[in-house]
Design brief:
The protein is an all-alpha fold and 175 residues long. Helix content is 57%, strand content 3%. Helix 1 packs across helix 3, helix 1 packs parallel to helix 7 and helix 3 packs across helix 5. A hairpin with a 2-residue loop joins strand 1 and strand 2. It has a two-stranded antiparallel ribbon with strand order 1-2. It binds fe (ii) ion (2 copies). One fe (ii) ion binds next to helix 2.
Length: 175
């Protein structure tokens, strides 16, 4: 990733952090020792890396990063929530994440698609419409497996930097 690409990634993170509840995701575990916040940042980072690898001009990178950062914006700890708002967590959390994200942001159609369909093929009727939505279905599964089997996850400077930016906005985020 070039310096320009890193800056682009952090710019989007910073903008989103200002007006979101992303920092609250730090309090929820996603898999193993990884918080939901770290997972979301890592998914966004790896999605962007894949887009660069496959040809950045082919992708709406800003929307891909934003959608990925918000893909698990369901805002509860699924390990302790037997009855989440929209039904069984694995199937329903993309809908909850989309509802929450829609409250805090004006999402583009592509961002909404990324969030709502990221669990495909588990949610078999939600077929990804955009190539950005396809990338996240793959990256999300890869990251989830990595988190389950690794103890100390994501020691990647850019990911940690993004995490710091979001946590710094903890008390000042305006929604
Ligand atoms: Fe998810
Ligand atoms: Fe995820």
């Amino acid at each position: 990733m070039t310096d320009t690409q890193k800056k682009r990634f952090l710019k989007i993170v910073t903008e989103l952090a200002r007006t979101s509840r992303l920092s609250s995701q730090a309090g929820y575990t996603q898999h193993g020792n990884t918080s939901c916040l770290l997972h979301s940042i890592a998914v966004a980072y790896h999605c962007y890396k894949w887009a660069i690898k496959l040809g950045e001009h082919r992708f709406a990178s800003d929307e891909l990063i934003r959608g990925a950062l918000l893909h698990d914006y369901f805002l509860y700890d699924w390990h302790y929530n037997a009855f989440p708002p929209n039904g069984l967590h694995g199937f329903s959390h993309p809908l909850t994440a989309w509802q929450n994200a829609s409250k805090d942001f004006k999402l583009t159609e592509r961002e909404a698609d990324i969030i709502r369909k990221h669990m495909f093929p588990l949610t078999i009727t939600k077929i990804p419409k955009y190539r950005e939505s396809v990338i996240i279905t793959l990256v999300d599964k890869y990251c989830s497996l990595y988190e389950v089997f690794s103890r100390n996850t994501y020691n990647i400077p850019l990911i940690r930097q993004a995490e710091k930016i979001i946590l710094k906005n903890k008390d000042t985020a305006v929604i």
